[in-house]
């Protein structure tokens, strides 16, 4: 008998959501949440750099079951963290979290139909057993960010900081700040630091699409004055889901039109005569990489004020007082911030073993975007890259609970995805052009080119697959470990 029915790894937005759905749909099942750090909140507790905020609206990034009541639609980390903590406390989820507990390895036993999970807590190793292992820790390393090699960086006399390790006492008032990068972190830090800093420069190798959006949702806020919070939230959420999906589909179908439209928005908010094409016109199409949003165009406001600037060039080397660029130009700086991305890490770095055989992740295929081929009773939560992360996670959690109910109803204790055609063509696990993804594609699982092995990036398609269609299909094998039942068979209900 396993210690727990479900062991959830990660107490961030995905893990807390998974716990809510599990205890709502299966109140008799036992579960615990393992959190390597000392607080809930995941990303929103970890990152402390200036201006940290969501780049999705909270009506869709928040939980479907808990209305977002704040007037800010694009919200800062403090508000998001308060929302998550309130959710955990309201539903008693916080009492299920075991802090400072990091998963090292998990081994599945088919005869026992459970996982034996090795964890490290306060420097000591111990084991737990569970019927299901649910990984909800996202896909990047929490203990270190990515910083490329920069020649001569040791010569730099100023402060060199990665946003993932932001010093609480950093004093940048009146100082020259150089932010290396052009992604979501960089476009957040620049306008946040600009008012107090002497000057902030964003140095990028390649431009990124930057889309100005309202920080507040006027329709959503108006609805809250007319309707109940629950009703107003539901309507605003549906509106924003539709808006996100239409924007993405338009961009993918008409990339040139989308490019021109984004450029027009940028040019309207930048100073007259600004070299828009040099700094804000990427060589790739919209949504080949994630678009960066800037609430109320704050990045462009900082540029117009003269407190911030953008340079598109490459670093040759660091100097004692800044960086030398390939163009021959030198950028002087007191503080350099390497907003150069994340280190992707699958499933928190844990190793998986099934019946004595180590699971090689690149040999597995993602099933419905939530399980792995050949790996029984293992689920994970990875959100959308083209929309609000939590929209996908919520659907996955619902489907997971439906799967558990189906197994209980039919007397199964094991569910294992099995690929019918091992020679079928495959695609990368994350079909996404970001550099932090491309660096590790050979270390990740893969996905197929047809359902259920294709990881959908369409919310409406996932609503059909994960919420409405039956749980069972020909490539999900159910079984029971007891000797009086066949060890493996197709679902008897088909």
UniProtKB/TrEMBL annotation:
It holds the Pfam family FMO-like. The keyword Magnesium does not apply. It comes from the Bacteria. This is Cation diffusion facilitator CzcD-associated flavoprotein CzcO. It comes from Lentzea atacamensis. Its cofactor is FAD. Belongs to the FAD-binding monooxygenase family. Keywords: FAD, Flavoprotein, Monooxygenase, Oxidoreductase.
């Amino acid at each position: 008998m396993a210690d727990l029915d479900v062991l959830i790894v990660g107490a961030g937005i995905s893990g807390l959501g998974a716990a809510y759905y599990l205890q709502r749909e299966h109140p008799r099942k036992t579960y615990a949440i393992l959190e390597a750090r000392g607080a809930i909140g995941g990303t929103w507790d970890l990152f402390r750099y200036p201006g940290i905020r969501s780049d999705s609206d909270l009506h869709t990034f928040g939980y479907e079951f808990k209305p977002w009541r704040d007037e800010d639609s694009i919200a800062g980390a403090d508000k998001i963290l308060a929302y998550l903590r309130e959710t955990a406390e309201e539903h008693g989820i916080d009492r299920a979290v075991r802090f400072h507990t990091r998963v090292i390895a998990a081994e599945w036993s088919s005869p026992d139909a459970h996982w034996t999970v090795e964890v490290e807590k306060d420097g000591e190793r111990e084991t737990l057993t569970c019927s299901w292992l649910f990984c909800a820790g996202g896909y990047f390393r929490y203990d270190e960010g990515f910083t490329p090699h920069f020649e001569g960086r040791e010569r730099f006399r100023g402060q060199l900081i990665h946003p993932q390790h932001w010093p609480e006492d950093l004093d940048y008032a009146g100082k020259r700040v150089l932010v290396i990068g052009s992604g979501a972190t960089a476009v957040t830090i620049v306008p946040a630091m600009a008012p107090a800093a002497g000057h902030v420069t964003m140095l990028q190798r390649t431009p990124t699409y930057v889309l100005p959006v309202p920080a507040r949702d006027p329709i959503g806020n108006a609805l809250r004055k007319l309707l109940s919070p629950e009703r107003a939230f539901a309507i605003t959420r549906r509106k924003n889901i539709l808006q996100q999906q239409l924007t993405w589909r338009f961009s993918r179908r008409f990339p040139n039109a989308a490019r021109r439209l984004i450029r027009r928005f940028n040019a309207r908010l930048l100073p007259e005569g600004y070299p828009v094409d040099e700094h804000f016109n990427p060589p790739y199409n919209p949504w080949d990489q994630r678009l960066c949003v800037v609430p109320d165009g704050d990045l462009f406001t900082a540029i117009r004020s003269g407190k911030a600037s953008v340079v598109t060039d490459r670093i040759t080397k660091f100097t004692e007082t800044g960086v030398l660029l390939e163009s021959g130009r030198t950028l002087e700086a007191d503080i350099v911030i390497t907003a150069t991305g994340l280190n992707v890490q699958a499933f928190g770095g844990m190793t998986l073993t099934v019946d004595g055989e180590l699971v090689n992740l690149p040999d597995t295929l993602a099933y419905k975007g939530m399980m792995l081929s050949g790996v029984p009773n293992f689920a994970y939560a990875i959100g959308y890259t083209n929309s609000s992360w939590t929209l996908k996670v919520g659907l996955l959690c619902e489907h997971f609970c439906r799967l558990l109910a189906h197994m209980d109803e039919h007397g199964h204790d094991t569910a294992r995805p099995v690929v019918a055609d091992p020679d079928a063509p495959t695609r990368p696990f994350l079909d996404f052009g970001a550099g932090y993804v491309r660096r590790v594609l050979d270390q990740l699982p893969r996905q197929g080119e047809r359902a259920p092995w294709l990881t959908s990036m369409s919310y409406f398609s996932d609503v059909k697959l994960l919420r409405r269609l039956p749980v069972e299909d020909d490539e999900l094998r159910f079984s029971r470990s007891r000797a009086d039942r066949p060890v493996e068979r197709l679902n008897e209900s088909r």
